[in-house]
Every structure is written in C-alpha cells, then in structure tokens.
Specification:
This protein is of the alpha+beta class. The chain has a domain of 128 residues: Alpha-Beta Plaits (2-Layer Sandwich). It contains seven helices and 15 strands. The strands form five sheets. The chain has a five-stranded mixed sheet. It has a four-stranded antiparallel sheet with strand order 6-5-9-15. Strand 3 and strand 4 form a beta hairpin. Helix 1 packs across helix 2, helix 1 packs across helix 6 and helix 3 crosses helix 5. The radius of gyration is 19 Å and the shape is globular. The chain starts with a strand and ends in a 9-residue tail after the last helix.
C-alpha cells in the first residue's frame, strides 16, 4: 500500500513528507508527524548546535521500538540544495560525505527519513580534528540510575570549578547524564581525550564505590561509568535537543546545575525526564541553556 505523502513549503523549499500518521512511539501514540512538528518548533534552539557539524543519522523507519540503523554517508538521493562535508575515514580508507543540517529544510528532510536521533561530532566540519568542546558521558550500571549520575556530575563540576572551567549538564534522554566543557579554542583530540581520561581515573580513585573509568561492562554494576572515550574524532554524541528512541518521546535536554542538585537531593529521577512537549515549553521559558557551549572560550589546564 503506497504511503501517504504531502508536499510542504519550508522557508521557500518544497519538501515531500511521508507517513505522517505513522505511530513512532507505540506506548503513547506519538506519531512521525508529531516528531517532525517537535523538530520544527525546537529548531531555533537546535540548529545552532547542528550547524556545520558532520551529522550521523540514527534512523528508525518503523518507529522508536523497532530496528534502526546508523547512516553516516549522506544518501545519494539527497536534494541538490543539501550541503555535505567530506570527512576522511581511516577505517574505510576513503572520504565519507556527511550531511549538514545547517537550516530548517535540511533538518526536516533528515527527520522525514526517520532520523529520530541526531548525533554530531564534537568538532566542526571545516576542522574535524579540532574539538570545540569536551564531553563526559555518564552511564549508570544497574541498579545505579540517573541519580548516581547526578552525584558524579556534581563531583565533576566541583573539579571544573576548581580549575575555573564552566561546565554544562544535559540529560542523555535515555538513562544517564552528560557534562560538557566548552573550549572553542584550538586544541586536539589527543589533548582532550587524555584530559578526560585523567579526570575519570581521578574520580575512580577517589570514589571507587561509585565510579568506574574502564569500559569493561562487568565492572559497571551499581556504578557510573564515566565515558571519556567519546572525545575522539571518530565518535559522535547525541546532540542536545535530539529525541531518543525510548518507550516515551524523551529528549536530550539541557538542564541547570540547580536541577541536577535538586533531583539528587530529592532522589527523584523524574525531575530529569523530559518529553518533547516539555522541552519546547522549557525553551520558550528559559531560552537555550546550552548556548554558551557554542561560544564560551576556555583552555584546559595542563595535566600534572
């Protein structure tokens, strides 16, 4: 049965959208049309964080609870107006042409491909070996939860405060938290990765009952894995404001440190769970809490 299609005008660009009534989140009835609507409405906050960054699309053709695949190479059937960026891949011994979601038509086009999740590089397409930020991905090993992640995130913040570095938390939209340190000055992944690893190992030494810095999964039970390895030119991290493929239409959401503290104090993980409509309301009320990550210039201290 042919899919129902509709042609729309997005900022002067004609796009054909399909399967808008298809349910992408079966538990809630949240449809593909609602996913696209969310991305259009959050675009003023999201697009600056996508702009000029190689985009990896995590595509869910049959919805959030069905099979998915990652797409790095921008599809051959992309429109002529869509910008791309060639990035050398040692693994493939060739360039990969990544899509760039630099404007609203590009974003809507990608989401219409069922790119439910948007994952980006820590560097810009014009200098892929120079990260503009540092990230710590906090992943709880059950029975640990996002609340233990809050505890570790606050420990990270204390370290950064001592080093006169501003840091910014966001929910992963899944089960953990992520902490970003904006740099926006010339630096290499060798430097950022070594720094992140040293911080993770320091936390593990100081809090062995809570933190693990090694990737071995059997070590993570009841602890928080501080994933420093994301600081790599071959890795991507879920973009702020991206939806996630969970049972509910949750979003990777920027939060204030006070919200992290309150959730940990109250032992209430729900305080850090945000679905798409809530995220739009938060942006309307609070603006983009992650905006400084794009502009704040900071330097990492030398490793001792």
């Amino acid at each position: 049965m042919p899919s129902k299609k509709v042609t729309v005008d997005i900022q002067g660009t004609s796009l054909t959208l399909s399967n808008l009534d298809k349910v992408f989140y079966p538990q809630t009835g949240f449809t593909k049309g609602q996913v696209i609507d969310y991305y259009i409405r959050i675009a003023p906050a999201l697009l600056p964080h996508l702009s000029n960054r190689p985009l990896t699309m995590k595509r869910y053709p049959d919805g959030a609870t069905a099979k998915f695949f990652y797409q790095k190479q921008c599809p051959d059937h992309r429109p002529d107006w869509l910008q791309t960026a060639p990035v050398w891949s040692e693994h493939n011994d060739d360039h990969i042409d990544f899509c760039l979601a630099n404007n609203l038509p590009s974003l809507v086009w990608a989401v219409n491909l069922a790119a439910l999740e948007l994952h980006t590089s820590l560097s810009a397409a014009n200098d892929v070996l120079c990260p503009t930020m540092l990230v710590f991905d906090l992943d709880p090993g059950p029975p640990a939860s996002v609340l233990e992640c809050c505890q570790v995130a606050l420990l990270l913040k204390a370290i950064f405060d001592q080093q006169h570095l501003q840091s910014f938390p966001k929910t992963s939209g899944s089960k953990g938290l992520q902490v970003y340190v904006p740099l926006n000055k010339p630096v290499t992944y060798d430097i950022t990765k070594a720094y992140a690893r040293a911080i993770a190992q320091l936390l593990e030494q100081q809090h062995p009952e809570l933190v693990v810095s090694k990737m071995t999964k059997k070590l993570r039970t009841g602890k928080v894995f501080v994933d420093w390895s994301q600081n790599d030119d071959h890795k991507t991290t879920v973009c702020v404001y991206s939806m996630r493929a969970r049972e509910q239409p949750t979003v990777s959401t920027p939060v204030n440190w006070s919200e992290v503290e309150q959730a940990f104090k109250d032992k209430n993980a729900q305080l850090l769970t945000f679905e798409a409509p809530q995220v739009i309301s938060r942006f309307e009320q609070l603006g983009d809490l992650f905006a400084p990550v794009l502009t704040l210039k900071q330097e990492l201290p030398p490793l001792k």
